[in-house]
Amino acid sequence: MPPVVELTAVSRTYGEVTALAGADLTVQRGELLAIVGPSGSGKSTLLNIMGTLGRPTSGTVRIDGHDIGELSDRELSALRAGTIGFVFQAFHLAPGVPAVDSVADGLLYSGRPLRERRSLAEAALHRVGLGHRLHNEPHQLSGGEKQRVAIARAVLGDPPLLLADEPTGALDSRSGAVVMELLHELHAAGTTVVVITHDRDIAASLPREVRIKDGRVEHDSGAPAAPVRDEVVV
Ligand SMILES: Nc1ncnc2c1ncn2[C@@H]1O[C@H](COP(=O)(O)OP(=O)(O)OP(=O)(O)O)[C@@H](O)[C@H]1O
Ligand SMILES: [Mg+2]
Q1: Count of beta carbons in the 10 Å neighbourhood of residue 155
Q2: DSSP of 91-147, one letter per residue?
Q3: Is 232 in the pocket of ligand 1 (CB under 6 A)?
Q4: Which entry of 24, 116, 128, 136 is 20 to 30 Å from 36 by CA?
Q5: Could you give all domains of the chain from N- to C-terminal order, each with its CATH number?
Q6: Once rounded to an integer, what is the mean pLDDT over residues 90-106?
Q7: Burial code of 104-137, b = ≥16 C-beta within 10 A, e = fewer?
Q8: Atom number in ligand 1 closest to CA 20
């Protein structure tokens, strides 16, 4: 099976600013890893590119074996919808919308009927321990509960890859621990999980830590072994 993510010499500039400067990163299926690094070092840019929300200025991005440089925007959206779930620090839940509908909206473009989407959404909310909060709107939920709703939405279609950008950044340590437990459970159930964090304890508690500095991978505690290639003897 190809790596779920394979970034080779990925650079990204915004005008004069270099956000990524030749980053290499391979993530195998089933991994759980932390991405750490100073503010402005390029972590979110890296995650957005892994999530195909942005394209690199140069370098190669392969997701599940697909070179995204060879895909149209439409094909890329389809790949993203079927492969990747996102969780952000700020939850991104629409005000006034009950949890079950926020989650069901995660499958808006799946072509499934509303009833089926809602019943899947209820199951996902039970899975994150919010079976008793199905009809609460965001203002009726704690921060930790909001993040669990966002996670339920992200994993509704059972994507193999979950990308989380500081998912505990807006939470107190107790709610943050609940969210991390949930990410561990999803990982144990087979999801590949990538977490950006500023929290050293969280980073240290994950099996692999990738440190970003100045738009490059400065240190990788657990880079998987390079694939064995057949040697061609000339
Ligand atoms: N859309 C954009 N337009 C212009 N510059 C950007 C844009 N996005 C990011 N940058 C710049 O690229 C660099 C890397 O940003 P990025 O958001 O990836 O950092 P980060 O490591 O996630 O930081 P933080 O820990 O503060 O979230 C920064 O200098 C930032 O100002
Ligand atoms: Mg960031």
Answers
A1: 22
A2: ----TT--HHHHHHGGGGGGT--HHHHHHHHHHHHHHTT-TT-TT--GGGS-HHHHH
A3: no
A4: 128
A5: 5-220 (3.40.50.300)
A6: 94
A7: bbbbeeeeeeeeebbebbbebbebbbbeebbebb
A8: 14
Q: Quick one: tokens of 32?
A: 């759980």
Report the separation in Å between the CA atom of 58 and the middle of ligand 1, taken as the mean of its atom positions.
17
Q: Is the CB of 90 under 6 A from ligand 1?
A: no
pLDDT confidence of residue 221: 94
Residues 58-97 have pLDDT tens digits of: 999 999 999 999 999 999 999 998 899 999 999 999 999 9
- Ligand 1 centroid distance, CA of 26 (Å): 21
Cα 11 to averaged position of ligand 1 atoms, centre (Å): 13
